[in-house]
Amino acid sequence: xxxxxxxxxxxxxxxxxxxxxxxxxxxxxxxxxxxxxxxxxxxxxxxxxxxxxxxxxxxxxxxxxxxxxxxxxxxxxxxxxxxxxxxxxxxxxxxxxxxxxxxxxxxxxxxxxxxxxxxxxxxxxxxxxxxxxxxxxxxxxxxxxxxxxxxxxxxxxxxxxxxxxxxxxxxxxxxxxxxxxxxxxxxxxxxxxxxxxxxxxxxxxxxxxxxxxxxxxxxxxxxxxxxxxxxxxxxxxxxxxxxxxxxxxxxxxxxxxxxxxxxxxxxxxxxxxxxxxxxxxxxxxxxxxxxxxxxxxxxxxxxxxxxxxxxxxxxxxxxxxxxxxxxxxxxx
Length: 332
Known about the structure:
This protein is an alpha/beta fold. The chain has helices at 33-45, 61-70, 102-116, 135-147, 161-170, 191-198, 238-258, 262-271, 286-294, 302-312, 324-327; strands at 3-5, 12-14, 18-19, 50-52, 78-83, 85-88, 93-98, 121-126, 151-157, 173-179, 201-205.
């Protein structure tokens, strides 16, 4: 697979990475751990070198899974993880609050290093911006970890353009991670331009709209409210799913002409936006892994890109991408 560099001074990674959250949390499917280790290793065999996890996924168990899976390939891959959620140590779940005090960052990095089984974290993101802690303090603390050899690169997740600028002035930001796809394009308003100006890579999470852009979710699809985050997302309510089908129909039409799936066209469209954009679709299924990675071989023409943008501009996507409470914790 082709490689891309995350920004001016960031790591070189595969053009498509692998988001690992769904292997441990977030969705109703609870796959076998050993099968997920095999899936991560299959991704390496197919040229993937960029893997994304976080301490809050599980919590903790996803970092352990990723660390074990990638142990034989440590010198071949780039592992990204994240800090910034407050985790209840008794119930082992997120409290729903963000926390990025310098003393907290210095503490939790040790746990991530241990669980991943590494001496250095390749890319360390602040998972959510903490409004109680100046971003300069966060950047400075991660800078200290970089100087100490515990972290190689600093990243931000769901951060606004102004926040990115302030952090970058203290400690260069290698990558910004935010949701971005044909049904969530807010990063185009100012974050992508900021990344281009400052030489920062951009990593779209949920590039397939949490599965919606694959065309496999319909208005009749149900989501378990006890363990599937989509059950609380307005965009996945039945009426919204029916309305938003227009986005999938657009991708399906392009895909039929190219002999590709809607999901592959969605990923190819992202790859065509900038050479420093690296999407990280997640999956728990080997055939979906193969499908997603094949998108790297699809080069959309200028006419096809113009057609997609023109048609997409006429579609008013219905429903929020998060609940109001979850959206309030973002910084964009």
